[in-house]
Amino acid sequence: MPLRATLGCIPSGIEGVRATLRVMVKTCRDFLKPPMNDLDKINSLLLVRVTAQRAVQSCREKDYWAEAAAIHRFVRDEIRYVRDILDKETLQFPDKTLLLKSGDCDDKSMLFCAMAHCIGYPSRFCAVAVNDEPDFSHVSAQCLVDGFGWINAECIPIDENGAKADFGWFPPDATQVMTAHVSH
Description:
This protein is an alpha+beta fold. It has a single domain, classed as C8orf32 fold (Roll). Helix content is 40%, strand content 18%. β4 and β5 (149-153) form a beta hairpin. α1 runs parallel beside α5 (105-118), α3 (64-78) runs antiparallel to α5 (105-118) and α4 (94-100) crosses α5. The longest helix has 20 residues, at 13-32.
């Protein structure tokens, strides 16, 4: 399996959060618009699209809430949460997360956004800080669902017992939020 990697230095604090979100947005946008002459990248995008199509297969046609929720369930349940390299922020391309069937919150969020985009849903990332902590400690995905607005898609376990969040759940202890749009 060929690996694609970029190494960079991300500052700490709020500038680091902004920088990480910019890298995530760029990674997703680049993934979603492969060069027409790069068959490997085109096939990777098609793999994500086919996965999204399969995830929504049992939904009623044009039931947009059900489709977005089905993508959420797929990423939440079929992709295992695995932390980053110790003391290193790592970001995987959506196809790698899908093939490896694992990733952390930003990897799972990028896969959700890519899958949502592949079947017509605008998406964005939502970084959160909780309990009045000064640092942002988590990122989730959101998609725009017709008739409902921006809906949160929390894809990692929400407690130490592995509880899974329903589509739309948002951390009740969130005190700061920063969003970054993948698509509009």
